[in-house]
């Protein structure tokens, strides 16, 4: 370990890091702008200048940029000598000559890195007497607000957007102090990760446009650690509340999961919590028309006691979007045999297959962070950007791993960002995609293959056979496919960290099996094999581990068991089953109780609707696609009758109503019972400290110590300043009172440190900057294959699909904006939802006499769809991609075989490319229709 | 005995001393211009609300008796949607005025705020907003800020160059 002398003290530090990262890891305050732990160093801003001495006899020294200087043994530097202090202050002064007088109206104010650094360097009076240069702003879409005057040209935005996230449409223009960061013309940013600009930008150039709608300063937000509910990855978030509504979501660093970034669906999809579609009071249907009217708690008890008096048989339908605790409570109420997982039958079998693959191994499910370290990737049947967006961002880093390895050979450290990029140029790691159509990752793919689903499975099995000849061979493969399989096999075998990615979104079990087959074959010869299987919802894996019953053969179950009461937990059955079947199901039982937070077609047909809390109003545990259990915490105490789902279930449960004392009192009771009952989930207790956890006898405060307006917020309603609500379920308090130091990692409610008001204060919460949070990253892995005995190969090889005549394979098309149930309730997200259309290969379309924009009629079984057509060369011949998961669209069981034909002539053409901005490269892939409207 | 007589004498002398008592409310006492009394919100010289809802007064307030919500008009000008001061909590320390970057919030010389009901001491924006610019005439924050608002585009504020043409190749 090199020893480093800083201002008279000697520190033992890690070799290979740069001086800035080392100083920050040691807890020293050194100002910087352009450096970012995830983006590396480029030395653009010159702010982190320190003085380096040759040896102990050198008293003059020289200025070096800390971020560009590797630490060497015996190095002697000073941060505090007059020369470097003055240099840093003058630099800020120069940056501020053009900075506008905006802080009071700037959304970054109060959490601004530029403010912090200006205070830190001591510059406080403006001596520049000349005029400020100004810029015109651009419209950058519904998510990001642009205020270019505030720019200090640190280049972080383009380094994140272009270099890290491979976004094509944000760039630096012009030169000297005319440098402008924006698009070539007004228009929505195309990248799905544009929201990170808000946190990456050290000033207020890029700010959160949805926050602007109900602007609140950081110091006024009640915050608690949360977990994103919008896909199966479980990214860690911090949600902020003020005046009873959620104001924004920002990233909560978790070194093993999402790191420094979030996707736009997770960041901007929060508005459903505040939406008018929320269920805010208990409702019961009454009268002939069965209109739902608000009911009192007494009335609920009366309705429920009827249910209990008759000793009704209860059927419980859980949900992959509800917490483990809520699902478990329902399982207790209905009994394990009468509790169903609430997933669509096909989806349920696929999630269970994924679970068994992860459990049996030999490949280990990788975290998002590990996925970014992979150096050869093979994706089977997933458009990752749309089904698990943050995994796509990790895979984009994986595509660059070869550059990092090449640089390491040339003695260039990984953090030396510009040098690493310069050395590697356009080189990318082996990256193969087999999909049915265009995917958003095609631009980093070495090779891309577009075939129907069974073709993907066959290619995967052929790869497995090429890796290990004892794996079942695939007959009748074309020579070109054989060659490709050999190429992929060689790439995976030569890699240090090979990664196979697949998932449930294609709806095809043979694709999942093929992915598993490759990892089994790889594991025969090597130790480290990674697999990442994408699951559809935030707790899909959790409910699969908890519940045994599925929605399969539901009709027979109802008939044979004579259920009288149906309890549906946070689930819209019309998204899981054909509507006729759901109608029949809801008719067949005497009483339907729905516990949910948002009105759905299912809740509208219920006899009793109980208002549940969203992620912001309830605590719980989720299991992500990696098998990591993570706790999310309530942000605020809602007004009215809204309470956690498990509390509603406890309240209607006959046993707990009979005996209040033995009933569950708080979340810890539920978790304890759950861990005892379900050994597979016993480790979820370790996901976060229990509700009686205290630091120095104190809870952790949800409100920052500068929280304002306590004595005036509700003064117009009551002058008596009510006591803040109490929280029995978590170690947090709903007020400013509580511990202010650094709490255990799962309980960090916000990132703030004296002198560091911006998100950059995160440095103070990490053991080493860019590494783990102090005390280890939150979450506990539940699934780890022991690797003792390798499972055998799957023997069944699917045959080549034979579509006769007009038959095509209908394939679900998932969209980051549009396919997820709740993010689409946000106004900003709504503006990004692409129009519904089916995607076809031009040859298929020609056969069916269809053109772009004309209406296609798709028939499969009872289902008949009429949608406009868009053509895409990449769509595999014989397949038609159909938008899936759209709100209000009829549920279709996909994939399926169907027929496509010509429908009525469409008068207005709904798919005309935007004439202003269509030549930016990415649009050439037909997968992104977000800007076509 | 002697001390009693002395006391009577002193009381007698006080009958001819200058009166400190003011016949309030018939006679108004003098409050110095820097008196920290009832808080108001002022307007800029153009007659628009000066408050830009930056929340600095609220966060500076030691008793947290100021609460507000920012909103924007269609031209991007930010102003408070509501602005509430709970005077039953206010200690008239004047920190809000010191924190205010736009001279919007000001303490006045008015101290006559007695009420029988505490709820009457909760002042909303309508109660706080006056029609003039108060102690600080002339200042208009949006004339200095780089933000474009209705009637003032980019580069039109004091001390600003016209906006850069990014597409120009001129040095």
Structural summary, described in words:
The complex is a heterodimer of chains A (933) and B (171). Chain A has 933 residues and is α/β, with parallel strands linked by helices. Helix content of chain A is 26%, strand content 18%. In chain A, the strands form nine sheets. In chain A, strands 15-14-26-25-24-16-17 form a seven-stranded mixed sheet. In chain A, strands 18-23-22-19-20-21 form a six-stranded parallel sheet, with helices on one face. A six-stranded mixed β-barrel of chain A has the order 32-36-33-35-34-37. In chain A, helix 9 packs parallel to helix 23, helix 10 (345-360) packs parallel to helix 18 and helix 14 packs across helix 15. The model of chain A is unreliable at 904-933 (pLDDT under 50). Chain B has 171 residues and is α+β, with helices and mostly antiparallel strands. Chain B has a three-stranded antiparallel sheet. Chain B has a two-stranded antiparallel ribbon with strand order 1-4. The longest helix of chain B has 13 residues, at 2-14. Chain B is elongated and about 105 Å long. Chain B starts with a helix and ends in an 8-residue tail after the last strand. The chains are: A alpha/beta (933), B alpha+beta (171). Chains A and B meet through strand 6 of A and helix 2, strand 2, strand 3 and strand 6 of B. Strand 6 (132-134) of chain A pairs parallel with strand 6 of chain B.
């Amino acid at each position: 370990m090199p020893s480093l002398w800083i201002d008279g003290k000697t520190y033992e530090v890690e070799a290979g890091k740069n001086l800035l990262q080392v100083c920050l890891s040691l807890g020293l305050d050194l100002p910087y702008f352009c450096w970012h732990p995830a983006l590396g160093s480029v030395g653009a801003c010159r702010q982190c200048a320190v003085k380096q001495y040759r040896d102990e006899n050198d008293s003059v020294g020289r200025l070096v940029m800390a971020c560009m200087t590797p630490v060497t043994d015996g190095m002697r530097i000073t941060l505090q000598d007059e020369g470097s202090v003055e240099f840093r202050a003058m630099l800020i002064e120069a940056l501020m000559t053009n900075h506008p007088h905006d802080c009071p109206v700037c959304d970054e104010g109060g959490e601004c890195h530029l403010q912090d650094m200006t205070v830190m360097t001591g510059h406080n009076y403006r001596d520049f007497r000349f005029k400020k240069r100004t810029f015109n702003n651009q419209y950058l879409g519904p998510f990001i607000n642009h205020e270019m005057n505030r720019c200090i040209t640190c280049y972080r935005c383009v380094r994140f957007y272009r270099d890290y996230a491979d976004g094509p449409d944000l760039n630096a223009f012009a030169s000297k102090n005319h440098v402008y960061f924006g698009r070539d013309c007004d228009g929505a940013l195309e990248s799905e990760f544009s929201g990170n600009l808000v946190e990456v930008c050290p000033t207020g150039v890029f700010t959160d446009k949805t926050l602007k709608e109900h602007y609140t300063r950081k110091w006024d937000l009640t915050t608690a650690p949360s977990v994103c509910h919008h896909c199966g990855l479980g990214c860690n978030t911090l949600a902020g509340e003020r005046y009873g509504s959620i104001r924004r979501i920002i990233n909560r660093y978790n070194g093993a999961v999402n790191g420094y970034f979030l996707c736009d669906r997770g960041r901007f999809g929060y508005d459903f919590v505040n939406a008018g579609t929320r269920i805010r009071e208990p409702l019961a249907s009454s009268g002939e028309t069965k209109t739902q009217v608000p009911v009192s708690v007494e009335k609920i008890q009366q309705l429920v006691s009827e249910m209990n008096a008759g000793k009704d048989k209860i059927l419980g339908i859980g949900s992959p979007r509800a917490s483990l605790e809520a699902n478990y409570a329902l399982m207790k109420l209905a009994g394990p045999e009468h509790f169903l997982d609430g997933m669509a039958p096909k989806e349920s079998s696929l999630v269970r297959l994924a679970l068994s693959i992860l459990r049996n191994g030999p490949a280990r499910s990788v975290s998002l962070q590990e996925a970014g370290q992979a150096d050869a990737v093979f994706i089977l049947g997933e458009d990752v950007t749309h089904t698990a967006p943050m995994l796509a961002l990790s895979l984009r880093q994986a595509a660059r791993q070869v550059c990092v390895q090449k640089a390491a050979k040339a003695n260039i450290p990984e953090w030396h960002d510009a040098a690493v990029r310069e050395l590697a140029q356009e080189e990318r790691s082996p990256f193969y995609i087999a999909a049915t159509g265009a995917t958003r990752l095609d631009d980093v793919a070495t090779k891309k293959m577009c075939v129907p689903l069974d073709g993907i499975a066959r290619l995967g099995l052929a790869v497995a056979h090429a890796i290990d000849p004892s794996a079942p061979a695939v007959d009748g493969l074309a020579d070109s496919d054989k060659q490709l399989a050999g190429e992929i096999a060689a790439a995976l075998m030569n890699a240090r960290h090979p990664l196979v990615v697949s998932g449930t979104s294609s709806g095809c079990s043979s694709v999942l099996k093929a992915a598993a087959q490759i990892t089994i074959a790889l594991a025969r010869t090597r130790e480290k094999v990674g697999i990442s299987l994408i699951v559809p919802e935030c707790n899909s894996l959790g409910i699969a581990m908890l519940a045994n019953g599925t929605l399969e053969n539901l009709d027979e179950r109802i008939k044979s068991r004579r259920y009288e009461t149906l309890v549906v937990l946070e689930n819209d059955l019309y998204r899981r089953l054909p509507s006729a079947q759901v109608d029949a199901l809801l008719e067949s039982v005497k009483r339907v109780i729905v516990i949910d937070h948002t009105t759905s077609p299912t809740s509208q047909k219920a006899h009793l609707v109980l208002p549940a809390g969203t992620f912001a109003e309830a605590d719980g545990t989720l299991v992500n696609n990696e098998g990591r259990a993570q706790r999310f915490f309530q942000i605020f105490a809602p007004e009215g009758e809204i309470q956690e789902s498990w509390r509603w279930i406890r309240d209607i449960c006959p046993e707990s109503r009979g005996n209040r004392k033995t009933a569950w009192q708080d979340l810890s009771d539920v978790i304890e019972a759950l861990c005892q009952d379900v050994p597979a989930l016993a480790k979820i207790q370790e996901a976060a400290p229990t509700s009686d956890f205290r630091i120095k006898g104190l809870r952790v405060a949800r409100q920052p110590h500068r929280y304002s307006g306590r004595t005036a917020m509700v003064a117009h309603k009551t002058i008596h300043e009510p006591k803040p609500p109490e929280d029995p379920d978590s170690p947090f308090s709903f007020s400013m009172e509580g511990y202010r130091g650094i709490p255990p990692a799962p309980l960090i409610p916000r990132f703030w440190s004296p002198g560091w008001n911006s998100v950059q204060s995160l440095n103070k919460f990490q053991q080493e900057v860019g590494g783990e949070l102090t005390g280890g990253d939150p979450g506990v892995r539940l699934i780890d294959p022991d690797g003792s005995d390798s499972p055998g190969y799957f023997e069944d090889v699917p045959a080549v699909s034979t579509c006769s005549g007009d038959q095509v394979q209908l394939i679900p098309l998932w969209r980051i904006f549009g396919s997820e149930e709740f993010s689409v309730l946000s106004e900003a997200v709504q503006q990004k939802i692409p129009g519904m259309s089916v995607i076809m290969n031009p040859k298929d379309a020609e056969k069916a006499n269809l053109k772009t924009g004309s209406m296609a009629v798709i028939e499969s079984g009872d289902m008949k769809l009429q949608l406009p057509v868009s053509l895409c060369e990449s769509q595999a011949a014989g397949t038609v991609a159909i938008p899936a998961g759209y709100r209000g669209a009829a549920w279709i069981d996909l994939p399926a075989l169907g027929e496509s034909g010509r429908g009525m002539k469409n008068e207005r053409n709904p798919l005309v490319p935007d004439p202003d901005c269509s030549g930016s490269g990415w649009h050439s892939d037909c997968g992104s229709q977000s800007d076509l409207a | 005995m002697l001390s009693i007589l002395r006391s009577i004498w002193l009381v007698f002398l006080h009958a001819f001393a200058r009166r400190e008592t003011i016949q309030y409310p018939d006679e108004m006492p003098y409050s110095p211009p820097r008196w920290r009394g009832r808080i108001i919100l002022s307007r800029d010289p153009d007659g628009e609300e000066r408050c830009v809802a930056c929340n600095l007064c609220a966060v500076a307030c030691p008793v947290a008796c100021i609460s507000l919500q920012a909103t924007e008009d269609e031209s991007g000008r930010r102003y408070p949607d509501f602005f509430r001061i709970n005077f039953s909590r206010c200690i008239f320390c004047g920190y809000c005025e010191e924190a205010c970057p736009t001279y919007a919030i000001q303490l006045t010389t008015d101290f006559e705020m007695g009420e029988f009901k505490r709820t009457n001491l909760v002042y909303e924006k309508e109660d706080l907003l006056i029609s003039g610019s108060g102690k600080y005439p002339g200042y208009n924050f949006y004339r200095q800020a780089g933000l474009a608002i209705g009637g003032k585009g980019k580069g039109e504020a004091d001390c600003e160059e016209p906006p850069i043409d990014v597409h120009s190749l001129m040095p």
